[in-house]
Amino acid sequence: MVHFVGAGAGAPDLITVRGARLLGAADVVIYAGSLVNPALLGRCREGVRIYDSKEMTLPQVLAVMRTAEAEGLETVRLHTGDPAIYGAIREQMDALREAGIPFDVTPGVSSFCAAAASLKAEYTLPEVSQTVIITRMEGRTPVPEAEKLEKLVGIGATMVIFLSAGATDRVREALLKGAYSEDTPAAIVYKASWPEERLLRCTVGTLHEAAVKNEITRFALILVGDFLREGPAAYEKSRLYAPEFTTGFRKGSGEDKI
Questions:
Q1: Which fold has domain 111-234?
Q2: Positive or negative, the Cα torsion across 158, 164, 169, 171?
Q3: CB atoms inside a 10 Å sphere around CB 251
Q4: Sign of the CA dihedral running 40, 43, 47, 48
Q5: Span 2-106 CATH architecture
Q6: Is 155 within 8 Å of 172 (Cβ atoms)?
Q7: Domain ranges for the chain
Q8: pTM of the complete model
Q9: Quick one: which of 3, 52, 101, 238 has the fewest CB in 10 Å?
């Protein structure tokens, strides 16, 4: 059987309990060496076969899986973050279905979650933003025409931009075509949760300058939105915990404003 496992954002202890158990029991491990923290391989048992997929093609990865399955071995395909986000797992799963090889998926802590944690920020704030857009700037790999960054910037939602640290000048230009201004808060989070993590707070207007000055061109997320404004005056408190708010579990002390 093949187990797709989210390795988490980087810190070895951010892998899930289930993911750690599967990794520790695996006979074969194929891991994304360019992104997954190699410290996680310390969870593998002695004698496990380990393959680094950064040097492999899809047919080569699938060949390892088929060989392992033919030998009755358990395989862990270790992906960075959560495999459902830019994980390129659909093509692997479809091939396994076609080959009749059983598989399952264990989610992981995505870097966008780790980035918010490192910044001590909340993406969804009352009266600020209730929508999070996860996207990337078009590069060598295209994006659908309707999903190009400049077409997603109209509502001013919280924006999490993957795979675009080397194109901050283009990101800034696209953001300024929508609801964001030069003064809109932004942040660059390099290697969220890794020991070498770096947090750069800036604005949309200074985004490119911050990336260039700090020589960040990859392994970083770009976060944009008013959720990054600091201080209690920057948002409204949650109605759910307001004393006067009635819920299915308690009676409000004042007028219910549902």
A1: 3.30.950
A2: negative
A3: 9
A4: negative
A5: 3-Layer(aba) Sandwich (3.40)
A6: no
A7: 2-106, 111-234
A8: 0.91
A9: 238
